[in-house]
Design brief:
Layout: H1 2-12, H2 19-22, E1 26-27, H3 30-33, E2 46-51, E3 56-61, E4 64-69, E5 72-80, H4 85-91, E6 94-99, H5 104-113, H6 121-124, E7 129-131, E8 137-139, E9 144-155, H7 164-171, E10 178-190
Antiparallel strand pairs: 1-10, 2-3, 2-6, 4-5, 5-10, 6-9, 7-8, 9-10
Length: 191
């Protein structure tokens, strides 16, 4: 099993010089080397990015899940209808999730309170955008990057809420109902 995982990662992210290794990242086999607690990882806030080399955007996320689905290592993230990043998620095949050490609070606060509609958030924070071999944006200042290929996307259907928790959440939430994106983890890098 581990040999097939390593072979799959090597096939997806061949060894050698790439944009990631040039910036100090090393590829990891996420099923073997991801050591974070899946119940807490998203609670520490992460950055989500999507787009391409012509235009991209990132935002802070605090909701998500990791595990397996359809036989794939998968990540689930949520983006509200009125968030600027949503159009990039809807129009991109891939997205990245990033964790930071240096300047974490500053980066996550700014990315979570400012809109990319009003200016280049990465430039304002002096973050440097790089791209994976799939053309997915990420910031070289991150300490950890997951690249995911979107397998499924659908907005929450309020008629399907079975509890008052989501009903209360959306009763006074101006950004709109969230869309759920499930992505297969196709690459993972850490510094």
């Amino acid at each position: 099993m581990i040999q097939s995982i390593i072979l799959a990662v090597m096939t997806i992210a061949p060894m050698g010089m790439s944009a990631q290794t040039e910036h100090g990242f090393e590829a990891i086999a996420v099923e073997r080397d991801f050591a974070e607690n899946g119940f807490n990882w998203f609670r520490h806030a992460l950055l989500l990015a999507a787009g391409n080399e012509q235009q991209s955007n990132a935002m802070t996320i605090g909701w998500g899940g990791i595990g397996t689905l359809w036989g794939k290592t998968a990540v689930t993230v949520y983006v509200a209808e009125k968030r600027y990043t949503k159009q990039f998620m809807d129009n991109s095949r891939y997205f990245t999730i990033m964790a930071f050490d240096d300047r974490k609070d500053e980066i996550l606060e700014y990315m979570g309170t400012k809109s990319g509609r009003d200016g280049d958030k990465a430039k304002a924070l002096d973050l440097h955008t790089a791209y994976t071999e799939n053309g997915t944006p990420y910031y070289i200042e991150a300490k950890f990057v997951l690249e995911c290929r979107t397998m499924y996307a659908a907005p929450f259907n309020p008629q399907c809420f079975k509890d008052d928790v989501p009903q209360k959440m959306y009763s006074n939430f101006p950004a709109g109902v969230h869309t759920m994106y499930i992505g297969e983890v196709v690459n993972a890098w850490k510094k």
